[in-house]
Amino acid sequence: MRYLIILTVCLFVAVYADHLIVGNVSNRVVLANQTKVEYNAIPFMKRVKYFFYSQTDNRLIQGIQALDTLHSKASINITAGGVGYSYVNLRLKSERGRGLSYDIGIYVQDYFYH
Ligand SMILES: *[C@@H]1O[C@H](CO)[C@@H](O)[C@H](O)[C@H]1NC(C)=O
Ligand SMILES: *[C@@H]1O[C@H](CO)[C@@H](O)[C@H](O)[C@H]1NC(C)=O
Ligand SMILES: *[C@@H]1O[C@H](CO)[C@@H](O)[C@H](O)[C@H]1NC(C)=O
């Protein structure tokens, strides 16, 4: 008799939703950069775009808020950097045949509280 036990442990740690809100976006932080990222739809295609932000002073990113203003099935995740870093790279993927429209806010520590 043979037992075949396949144990698949799937640990999927990803922020995968139409909205992405990580870290602090309200407590003792200031909006360092707000960018509206917009791309037109291409029929039958999913669009993949990257948004890179790098802080010019030495303050680290405290929070990131990215809102899907189309309320579509687009997804967004962090591919590099993020909260605790001075930079972030975001990967945006549209719903098939739809455009991308994200309102991205990058929050950093307020000088006042340093
Ligand atoms: C957000 O800020 C508050 C107040 O400064 C702090 O207590 C909390 O730990 C912070 N949360 C995160 C996720 O950084
Ligand atoms: C915000 O960041 C984007 C991407 O890095 C940049 O193109 C834009 O100029 C910045 N806006 C401001 C007001 O600094
Ligand atoms: C972001 O999503 C893409 C596509 O699903 C995936 O390849 C990538 O590993 C994800 N990145 C993170 C940090 O989860």
From TrEMBL:
Segment forming the signal sequence: 1-17
This protein's UniProt keywords: Signal
Matching InterPro entries: MBF2 (IPR031734)
Top-level division of the source organism's lineage: Eukaryota
Pfam families in the cross-refs: MBF2
Protein's UniProt name: MBF2
